[in-house]
Amino acid sequence: MSIVEKFESMEYGTAPEDPKEVLAWLDRHKRRFGHFINGSFQPPSAGQYFDTTDPSTGEKLASVAEGSPADVDAAVAAARAALAPWQALTPHARARYLYAIARLVQKHSRRLAVLETLDNGKPIRESRDIDIPLVARHFYHHASWAQLLPQEFPGYEPCGVVGQIIPWNFPLLMLAWKIAPALAAGNTVVLKPAEFTPLTALAFAEICQEIALPPGVVNIVNGHGATGEALAKHSGVDKIAFTGSTEVGRSIRAATAHSHKKLSLELGGKSPFIVFEDADLDSAVEGLVDGIWFNQGQVCCAGSRLLVQESIAEVLLQKVCDRMSTLRAGPPLDKSIDIGAIIADVQLQRIRSLVDQGVAEGAVCWQPSVKMPTKGFYYPPTLLKNVHPTSIVAQQEIFGPVLVSMTFRTPREAVELANNTVYGLAASVWSESINVALHVAAQLKAGVVWVNCTNQFDAACGFGGYRESGYGREGGREGLREYLEPAWFRNAPKLPAAERPAAETETDGDAPFATPAIDRTVKLYIGGKQARPDSGYSMAVRGAKGELLGEAPLGNRKDIRNAVEAARKAEGWAKATAHNRAQVLYYLAENLAQRREEIVRRLAAAVGEKQAASEVDTGIERTFAYAAWADKFDGAVHNPPVRNIAIAMNEPIGTIGIVCPREMPLLGFLSLALPALAVGNTVIAVPSETYPLIAGDLYQLFDTSDLTGGAINIVIGYASQLLKVLAEHDDVDAVWCFGDEALVADAKSMSVGNLKQVFTNEGRVIDWFKTEQAEGRWFLEHATQVKNVWVPYGE
Ligand code: NAD
Fold first, then answer.
1. Closest to 599 in 3D by CA, of 455, 699, 473
2. Do 697 and 580 form a contact (C-beta atoms < 8 A)?
């Protein structure tokens, strides 16, 4: 084609990146890689290898060791042996290693970008300009966290040996998100890359060698799901950090429930991309290109659900189609390509099948007539219109370049549609009205909200989901916290095992509720009112010497359901200002102080006079403390290195089910319910099984303290039975369970259904009288989740 012809057609020529250096690197390794264990590459103990291929051609790139349980054992042992010397280094020395990694990532950035593109199929433009620079930024940012650790996290210790399992969509970036904070906090690591994309992790292993990172601090074991499973279940691992599908996240939650492994899960998403009629439509369309066609839509936070205001739907969709027609698909090493290859045939078939199902359910499928390569795994950019909100394509993550569109009329309808998903990872909101955009952002159930932008990431800003998108954050201060634990907590002794009721039925009890109480009878407390239990049964409550103190009702499944409904209706508590919540808690403290004598007298019959007096006195102080915290536990504003501010807000989790400790009927209850309430959650609490009569005193206090009805609900009964109902209830967002080891293991394994967040004492003793153990930030952090709202500035 002549220059004149080119000038007239304005067609792009090809601009291929030369892979020769990377191919030479693969050849130097004889196209065969072992695991990276204890500082060197080692062959697989079972002698098995698998192929990794270039998805844009289907051709084999190299064979890679398949990790057996023995390989995982060896890697965990190496990480364990390296732990003490790594922790013995000064924070500055650890910081220098991280800094050195960052430097070398930059030095080898082109090689890493080409290797990533070869192994993953993503456009070189993305691996070169987004993935690898973010990898370097992550290590720089965390080098400085390593340095500042003792000042910024006094009293905290690293978890120990960390097992990390990552997906294939951003192979080296996910590695950086995992390894950088883990090392900065003083942990050692065993990481399993995804089976489709192991190569950049192995190039990273070479960087570890090049900077002479002490052997065993980073270990990389390759393999498929079974290798990941062996790592997740390994008894020598103290924490698991997982990024991947919700389904596998669930299985890891179940597999780790009966251990004390700390767990963070970054899972799938179905993120809304909301365009209001006053948005800058051309910018929104460009945002959409980055939102759903970036990395072929294989992005956990892809803006895969376009919600557009009805008045502009036609215009916007036309603009979207026009823009889609200009997207260029082709060999990902071509620098002017927008759409690269899908990771593997199995993923391609999955996308096809979901789109077919969507069309069968009534969606209209539109694809531009862009030229698609004939070799390799490709899927054209796709728009599904007329999608019903309940359609499979509106609900399930497709993980491909497929956008589904729906319309809304009002901001309220937009929020309802946006939140109509089990996920809650990210959202993008487009409006030129800052009022509308921020009002909507505040109501979205998502860990990240981008206003008039999309897919912005930075190491200083936490990233992670609400609901079934997982829990825990990566990046920023909150991301680092996932790799640390309070030192006292790690060293706390175990609680003795508690007796459980013999029969685990719903209605068992000692006597019908009608039996006259010896001293006093209490009721349940639901929606701000006293309530009789559904079962009509009660249990006898005995004092320290076995004497009968009274009767307590036995709540059951139906009572919990009623309590959850009441808690859901009490959303006004979350919307109340922090100042208002503080006032209510101060009032509560005042009322508790006024009724001190009578409460001590009654409590003394169960726990003795000394403990009763201390519980009430510390309880008054603790209530004051949380009144003080209510308007102080606020967020932060981050300055990422782009023209954005990221507003990190601490939001309440929602409705929390709390199983209170047996040992401190009053103080245990207050120490858990108050931090949850202070930040705006609603609560269903199961009081101490040993002295549930405390409920009577508590609800009288709540009644007289202006607490919104339903903000706190009390259901008395056997902890093990009520825990199950709370953990399995889909409208309960988190379970806090403070009991013996068996009970907290139940809390974790029973919560897999909707992947609710679980906070427990790990079966350990907490000294509820000690402020440093039983009060403050540690509890408030578990009562909130961080939402980052990104807002651009400038013209
Ligand atoms: P996947 O869950 O199939 O695999 C992820 C990793 O887990 C792989 O390394 C795999 O080998 C391993 N694995 C598989 N079965 C396992 C088991 N039983 N026990 C332990 N490990 C096991 O996910 P994928 O297909 O590789 O990645 C796509 C998913 O990842 C999508 O759902 C996407 O949304 C999610 N993702 C989430 C984020 C985030 O930050 N939230 C980021 C990227 C990807």
1. 699
2. no
In the chain, the amino acid numbered 343 is I
| Tens digit of each residue's pLDDT (9 = 90 or more) over 591-615 | 999 999 999 999 999 999 999 999 9
Task: Judge contact between 208 and 53, C-beta under 8 A.
Answer: no
Rounded-to-integer distance, Cα 99 and Cα 137, Å:
10
Give the helix ranges, DSSP H, for 224-365: 225-233, 246-256, 281-292, 313-324, 345-360
pLDDT > 70? residue 233: yes
Residue nearest to atom 14 of ligand 1 (CA): 225
pTM of the model: 0.96
**718/735 Cα distance (integer angstroms):** 16
CB 176 within 8 A of CB 474: no
Q: Which residues lie below 8 Å from residue 375, measured CB to CB, with a gap of 6+?
A: 56, 57, 58
| Residue 186 in tokens | 């003083």
To the query of whether residue 300 is one of the catalytic residues in this protein, the response is yes
506 flagged as catalytic: no
Q: In this structure, what token pair is assigned to residue 330? A: 């082709």
Element (H, E) at 43: none
CA of 561 to the centre of ligand 1 (A): 34
Distance 166 CA to ligand 1 centre (A): 6
At 26, the amino acid letter reads L
Is 503 exposed, middle or buried, given 0-12, 13-18 or 19+ CB atoms closer than 10 A?
A: exposed
SS3 state of residue 224: coil
Are the C-beta atoms of residues 239 and 483 closer than 8 Å to each other? yes
* Nearest-angstrom CA–CA distance, 782 and 186: 22
For a substitution probing ligand 1, which of 64, 300, 421, 467 has the most ligand atoms within 8 Å of its CB? 300
* Proportion of the chain above pLDDT 70, given as a percent: 98
Catalytic residue from among 266, 468, 663, 775? 266
